[in-house]
Amino acid sequence: MANVFSSIGEWVSDRAPNLAPTYRKHMTEYYAPKNFNLWYYFGSLALLVLVNQIVTGIFLTMNYDPSAAGAFDSVQYIMRDVEWGWLIRYMHTTGASLFFVVIYLHMFRGIMYGSYKKPRELVWLLGMLIFLVLMAEAFMGYVLPWGNMSFWGAKVIVSLFGTIPVIGGTLVEWIMGDFLPADATLNRFFALHVIALPLVLLLLVVLHLAALHEVGSNNPDGVEIKKGPKGNRWDALKPADGIPFHPYYTVKDLVGVGLFLAIAAFIIFFQPTLGGWFLEHDNSIAANNLVTPTQIKPVWYFTAFYAIVRMIPSALGTAVWGVLGMFGSIALLFLLPWIDAGKVKSVRYRGTGYKVALTMFVLAFLGLVMIGTDYTDVLFPKLFGSDIDITAWDNAFGRVMTLIYFGFFVFLWLYTHLGWEKTKPVPERVTTHD
Amino acid sequence: MANEVVDPGRRRFLTATTAVVGGVGVVAAVVPFIKSWEPSARAKAAGAPVTQSLKKIEPGQQLIVAWRSLPVFIVNRSPSQLAALPKQDPRLVDPGSNGTSSDQQPKYAQNATRSIKPEWLVMVGICTHLGCVPDYVGEMKAEPFDPNWQGGYYCPCHHSRYDMAGRVYQGVPAPKNMVIPPYHFIDDTTVQIGVDPQGAA
Amino acid sequence: MIKRYISTIALALGLLLGTTAVMADEGPELPSAGTNLRDQASLQRGAHLFFNYCVGCHSLKYVRYERIADDLGLSEQDVMQNLNFTDAKFGDTVISHMPPDDAQKFFGKAPPDLSLEVSAKGPDWVFAYLNGFYLDPKSPIGWNNTILPNAAMPFPLWELQGQQIAVMKPAKSGEDPQIDKLTLLHPGRLTPEQYQQATRDLTNFLEYVSEPAALQRRHYGIWVVLFLLAFTFLAYLLKKEYWKDVH
């Protein structure tokens, strides 16, 4: 048996001599810093969720009907008549939300430990592109069940483009292929969701990983292990603080995968709607172009950016400012490697100002999520009495959060470009905290 | 952590155990995806038994009804067509339907006419070669494909031929007689396809 | 290290339960319907109520008779004789007796399909709605509802519950009068407690109908989660073993 395998191996390597070295380069001879902590699980978990979305998505397309007349019914057909269809759909819907949980934590890790800084700017840019495509992918996927929230979500989000001066109206009709979200809209969103965007996403993920493996992984200390001493127990010329990705990080990631899947399974089997956060109640009503749901809001993972649209008032007769604000809030993340000129990567050794600013930034993001999901409408009356003017409180709170969000980038630029930051000494080598 | 002793046996054991348990998990996860390809509740409902009245089918006429999306031929065989059946035996592959075609009909239709009542043929009209639907050629007259034709079925795809009981002739591509579905008579003029007669399951 | 994992799980589960509890709080406070999908007898009673009082106007267009029989532990005969009063086949979905055009004429609005009513509104809403009908001379159909004011639906369960009337709060000047509570004017065939139980059963049945898979997913879920936790534990041992190499 072993003979058969080794001769097949030889047969393959005769014809593709670079295959085995490529595997080694990315797995057994990819030396990752040995001090990864909890935050470093989310990269591999994102890959896991991507695979889950692709596999369950392929099986959903087998029974889904991408037409305005049939889409809603076909989802119920999957939920009731197809053997195990409910499991496949819940894996897909839960996966979509967990994708964003994982990606947001992954991005926060990158910000916290300065993983976007030189020499990893390209890794960061590719990652941000993945995030952008993922948002488009999630939005179009959300429209496909053709519930009332799908319909009105599509209408509102597409209308964002209508705020663009001069061409806005024409652009909206062009995107929808009709005057309202309709058959044509659903058909093109389906095509983009199931084939076009996943292809782009896969390509970007490959590039993201390839770019990472060129420069090597960052770590919680923000120390470049390649610049440190050489020689470890596997290779005399490789960084002393590096360990082979396989088997050490593959087995470690396996622990994260197991735990993540257990949590995901808990949601899928016991709380698939997660009380309306992952699957909204109003989407159990079929799309109806005459009746708007009582509360129109995107799914939680878009709400931070969507809240910014709501918080910026219209001016000079156009609502484009809110939309610019929303796109700006994402564009600023792209520019982070150049906004932040700090000499030190990891938050562990950065100045107090940075630590405060980062905390504020995270709180502002969560605050915007709360505003966007209308959670504040429940929370504020409980905290401050039921007779307050909720809209005024929402606006005041939301505008402060928006200012803090943008303020983070302004502060970071001033703080690092004008040399205000007082950093702590960075150790020569990585520290382990186990 | 630094001074712990590496135990290769324990390492091998844990690797194998984790791999096996993980493998079991993957297999278990694959099962729902495979099962999702089975006929859905809707398909099964559409495949429910079909009831058909026989009142308007004249001798020598054929009616086609759909059962589980399959074409089911219901033929009222005329006395002359019935009389021609035994004469075909020498030219057939399995005239008694007890050789290669013994699984092609329920036990209660494993007889000379392959039916419950001699005149009524109820048969899934799918050629046993590659699944085409054979043409009903009921008249007993010389045909281009057989100068001595005694009525039966002719498959346009690869020229397989069957007699008036769906029994396949020798020398054609099709290997077996056509399938007789489970069916029973609710009364003298009503047949139900998809359900065995009482006590005959 | 292991402590950290445990605290992470605890945190994640806490967040899950917390958000769920918070979301359930939204909207006006409604009394809990107290439904229980594991109570098969309740589901059966609810099915009987639905097919005796509701299906005349409301369909369950995604639900098959056969599925109801399978999930509620009923035989084909039970369902076809006691629940199905149309000529629908066992494998067919539940279509109401009333043609939609007629319904539109009678009520000005076609009665909605109830397959997903509980998914959309929640069990507490449905329960409160079924308990919120009262006589209202101002309404064209004679009935009104506290949960869905000016509902176009007459109240077919009145012979069970009886007839309620609204007791108004002392009106403040310049404000519309508010309903304080409902009281029973003429009792029906059931006592108030029996009626509450009947509507709880009906709500339970509608909850089942809005997601029949809920019965299966709870059945399998516990084993899947336990298996994955066991796998995680094994993977953790494996990780510790390999990481003895890392100094």
TrEMBL record, chain A:
It is found in: Membrane. The keyword Ubl conjugation does not apply. The chain crosses the membrane at residues 38-64, 84-106, 122-144, 156-177, 189-211, 254-279, 322-341, 353-376, 396-415. Its cofactor is heme b. The keyword Iron applies. It is a multi-pass membrane protein. Residues 8-221 form the Cytochrome b/b6 N-terminal region profile domain. Binds 2 heme groups non-covalently. Keywords: Electron transport, Heme, Iron, Membrane, Metal-binding, Respiratory chain, Transmembrane, Transmembrane helix, Transport. Residues 235-372 form the Cytochrome b/b6 C-terminal region profile domain. Component of the ubiquinol-cytochrome c reductase complex (complex III or cytochrome b-c1 complex), which is a respiratory chain that generates an electrochemical potential coupled to ATP synthesis. The main subunits of complex b-c1 are: cytochrome b, cytochrome c1 and the Rieske protein. Belongs to the cytochrome b family. This is Cytochrome b.
From TrEMBL, chain B:
Keywords: 2Fe-2S, Cell membrane, Disulfide bond, Electron transport, Iron, Iron-sulfur, Membrane, Metal-binding, Translocase, Transmembrane, Transmembrane helix, Transport. Residues 97-110 have a biased composition (Polar residues). Its EC number is 7.1.1.8. Residues 87-192 form the Rieske domain. It holds the Pfam family UCR_Fe-S_N. Its cofactor is [2Fe-2S] cluster. Belongs to the Rieske iron-sulfur protein family. The main subunits of complex b-c1 are: cytochrome b, cytochrome c1 and the Rieske protein. The Rieske protein is a high potential 2Fe-2S protein. NCBIfam families: Rieske_proteo. This is Ubiquinol-cytochrome c reductase iron-sulfur subunit. The gene is petA.
From TrEMBL, chain C:
Residues 41-213 form the Cytochrome c domain. Keywords: Heme, Iron, Membrane, Metal-binding, Signal, Transmembrane, Transmembrane helix. The keyword Ion transport does not apply. Residues 1-24 form the signal peptide. The keyword Manganese does not apply. Pfam families: Cytochrom_C1. The chain crosses the membrane at residues 220-238. It is found in: Membrane. Gene3D superfamilies: Cytochrome c-like domain, Cytochrome c1, transmembrane anchor, C-terminal. This is Cytochrome c1.
